[in-house]
Specification:
about 290 residues; Rossmann fold; binds 2'-monophosphoadenosine-5'-diphosphate; alpha/beta
C-alpha cells in the first residue's frame, strides 16, 4: 500500500478493535483493485464518540465502519440515515458525502446477501431465529421485510427483548412474530415446520466452540442453517447441521458481505468478495493462535 497525498481514508470505530478482520479485508480489496484508499482501526471510548465522529468528518474521511459498542449511539451524530438502518436502529457503515455523514446497516443486508448468494430466498419461509440481541434485531427486520414467517426463541425468561423486536416489526410492517423461551420443547416444536434456522446468539463461539444452541437430533435435511458466529468458521451447530444433510451458511459469509457492501458504498466498485473472504479467513486463523 502506498499512501500519497491523494489517499482516501476509511476506518473502523469501536472498542475493542484489536481482533477486527476489517482492515485486512478492505486494504486487500483496495490493493487488488488498485484503489488509492487506506483503512485504519480506531479504538474510541464511548465518551469520546462525538469527537471521533466529528473528527473523521473534519479530516474528510471517505467513510467508516462502526462496531460494538457504538452502533446505536452513533445515530444522533449522523446527518442522514438510510431507511433500513433507521428502522433497525443501528448503523455499522457511514459514508461521508462531501461533509454529509449518512448511516447504513450492512450487517442486515450482508446477512440477506449471504442467503441470496446460496440461492436461499427467505420469502414466505418459516424461520426460527435464536437470540434477541442487536444482531437478531437486524436479522428479524430484514427477514420480515422479505415476508418471512418468524419465530424468535430467547433464553431470557422475561422475553422482553424478543417482544420488543416483535412489537417494532408489528408497528412498522404489520407482521406478527411468535416469541418463545429457548427451551428444548419449544425448539423442537418450532423446528418442525421450519425452513431456515438462524443462530443469532453467541453460543458456540470460541473458546466455547464445543457447544451448540440446538440438540443435534433436531437437525434435518432440507433445513437451511445459518450461524452468525464466525469464530470458529465451522461451529458445532453447522457441523451437526451438515451431518444431518442440512444446507449450512457460515457466519464468515455474513461478515465478509457486510464488509463488501460497505466497500461498494465507499468506492462505487464491485467488491472482490472471494479475496476478502480469503484474507479474513487467514486473519481469523492467525488470531486463533
Ligand atoms: P449481539 O449484538 O451480537 O446480538 P447481544 O446484543 O449481547 O449481542 O445479544 C446476544 C444474544 O445472545 C442475546 O439474545 C442472548 O440471550 P439473552 O437475551 O438471554 O441474554 C443470547 N445468548 C447469549 N448467550 C446465550 C446462551 N448461553 N444461551 C442462549 N442465548 C444466549
Amino acid at each position: 500500500m502506498n499512501i500519497s497525498g491523494k489517499t482516501k481514508i476509511c476506518g473502523l470505530i469501536g472498542d475493542p478493535v484489536e481482533h477486527t478482520m476489517s482492515p485486512v479485508m478492505h486494504n486487500a480489496a483496495f490493493d487488488k483493485l488498485s484503489l488509492d484508499y487506506a483503512y485504519l482501526p480506531f479504538r474510541v471510548k464511548p465518551e469520546e464518540l462525538p469527537q471521533a465522529v466529528s473528527g473523521l468528518k473534519a479530516l474528510n474521511a471517505t467513510g467508516f465502519n462502526v462496531t460494538i459498542p457504538h452502533k446505536v449511539a452513533v445515530i444522533p451524530l449522523l446527518d442522514e440515515l438510510d431507511p433500513l438502518a433507521e428502522k433497525i436502529g443501528a448503523v455499522n457503515t457511514v459514508v461521508n458525502d462531501n461533509g454529509v455523514l449518512k448511516g447504513y446497516n450492512t450487517d442486515a443486508s450482508g446477512f440477506l446477501q449471504a442467503l441470496l448468494e446460496r440461492e436461499v430466498e427467505p420469502k414466505s419461509m418459516n424461520i426460527v431465529l435464536l437470540g434477541a440481541g442487536g444482531a437478531a434485531r437486524a436479522i428479524a427486520y430484514i427477514l420480515s421485510e422479505w415476508n418471512a414467517r418468524l419465530t424468535i426463541l430467547n433464553r431470557r425468561e422475561e422475553l422482553d427483548w424478543a417482544k420488543a423486536i416483535a412489537a417494532n416489526i408489528r408497528k412498522d410492517l404489520g407482521k406478527d412474530i411468535e416469541v418463545f423461551e429457548l427451551l428444548p420443547a419449544h425448539l423442537a416444536a418450532a423446528l418442525e415446520p421450519a425452513d431456515i434456522l438462524v443462530n443469532a446468539t453467541s453460543v458456540g463461539m470460541s473458546p466455547n466452540s464445543g457447544i451448540s444452541p440446538v440438540p443435534a437430533q433436531l437437525m434435518k435435511s432440507g433445513l437451511v442453517v445459518v450461524d452468525i458466529v464466525y469464530n470458529p468458521v465451522r461451529t458445532k451447530l453447522l457441523q451437526d447441521a451438515a451431518a444431518a444433510g442440512a444446507v449450512t451458511v457460515e457466519g464468515l459469509d455474513m461478515l465478509v458481505w457486510q464488509g463488501a457492501l460497505a466497500f461498494e458504498k465507499w468506492t462505487g466498485k464491485k467488491p472482490p468478495f472471494d479475496l476478502m473472504k480469503e484474507v479474513a479467513l487467514s486473519e481469523l486463523e492467525k488470531n486463533e493462535k
